[in-house]
Amino acid sequence: MKTREVIIPQGMEILYEKYHYCPGIKVGNTLYISGQVGRDENLQVVEGIEAQFIQTFENVKKVLTAAGATFDDVVEMITYHVTGVNLGNLPNRSASASEQQFTIPHLPLFMKVKDRYFTNQFPTWTGFGISALSTPGLIVEIKCTTILEN
Question: What is the pLDDT of residue 123?
Answer without folding.
Answer: 98
